[in-house]
Each structure stands twice: as C-alpha cells, then as structure tokens.
Amino acid sequence: MSFGAEELVKWKEKPEWFDRIVFDEYERLAAIGYTPKQIAMYYKIPHSDFQWYYDLVGSPLKYHYERGQLVQQAKEGITMTISAETGENVTQAQRLDKLRREVEFKNGINQIFYGDID
Questions:
Q1: Considering only CA atoms, which of 29, 36, 30 is closest in space to residue 69?
Q2: Separation of CA 46 from chain center
Q3: How many angstroms separate the CA atoms of 79 and 82, rounded?
Q4: Is 63 exposed, middle or buried (0-12, 13-18, 19+ CB in 10 A)?
Q5: In DSSP terms, which residues pair with 57 in a beta bridge?
Q6: Predicted pLDDT of residue 1
Q7: pLDDT in tens, 48-105
Q8: Max Cα–Cα distance, the chain, nearest Å
Q9: CA 94 from chain center: how many Å?
Q10: Residues 19, 40, 52, 69: what is their CA dihedral angle, to the nearest 10 degrees?
Q11: pLDDT tens per residue across span 15-42
Q12: Helix (H, G, I), strand (E, B) or coil at 109
C-alpha cells in the first residue's frame, strides 16, 4: 500500500479525549490568551498528544483556537468602533487605530508567507 505524506498529516479521526472539550469554553480560553499547551493541561490531556492533533491539517482544535482569538478581537474592535464614532472618546479611537495596525500587520505577514494557503 502506498500513500503520500499528505495523507498522514490530515485530521481524520478524533482522539478519545476529544469529547471532553467544550468548544465555547475552549474558544474563550484561546481568547484570553492561553497557549495550546495550557489548554491541554486545563482539559487534562497530554500536551504532546494534544499538540500533535492541533498541528494536523484541518484540525478542529486549531480552527476553534484561532476562531476564539478572532471573535474576541472582533468584539473589542466593534466596541471600540462604536465608542470612537462619536469622537468623544479619544482613547478608544487610539486603541482602535492600534488594533487596525496590528490586524493589518498580521494579515500582511500571512499573505507574504502563506499566500493563498488556508
């Protein structure tokens, strides 16, 4: 039987501990800033096992981790946008500008290094 390396690194089956993860909570932990290693510890999952599944192509662990960070950053950005619209809150306007620069910088780096790869 012959198969390529690509078949080895894709998410196919969930591990036995996968159902222990509550993904709303998992996304909030990612939004707070916990690392995958810390989240694995939180769910009492061996870090090496968790990291292996996290790094697989198409991993729902990585998707929900990145989604948690994105949703929180987006909520903060929306709140800042609403506060900055009136022009009364200069601090919020400055924070919004900083957030925009950070997002633009990250997107630029991702485009340079990863191009059209999802």
A1: 30
A2: 20
A3: 5
A4: middle
A5: 10
A6: 43
A7: 999 999 999 999 999 999 999 999 999 988 888 887 777 777 787 788 888 888 888 8
A8: 68
A9: 25
A10: 90
A11: 999 999 999 999 999 999 999 999 999 9
A12: helix
- The span from the CA of 29 to the CA of 92, in Å, is 25
Residue by residue, DSSP assigns 66-101 as HHHHHHHHHHHHHHHHHHHHTS--HHHHHHHHHHHH
Residues β-bridged to residue 10: 57
Phi, psi of 40 (to 5 degrees): -60, -45
- Total residue count of the chain as it appears in this document: 118
Rounded Cα distance between 35 and 40, Å, is 9
CB-based contact 83:36 (threshold 8 Å): no
Q: Report which of 95, 17, 72 is spatially closest to residue 49, judged by C-alpha positions.
A: 17
Please list the helix, strand and coil fractions of the chain in percent, rounded to the nearest 5, in that order.
70, 0, 30
Torsion of CA 31, 64, 102, 75, to 10 degrees: -60
Look at the alpha carbons of 15, 35, 22, 78 in this order and tell me if their dihedral is positive or negative: negative
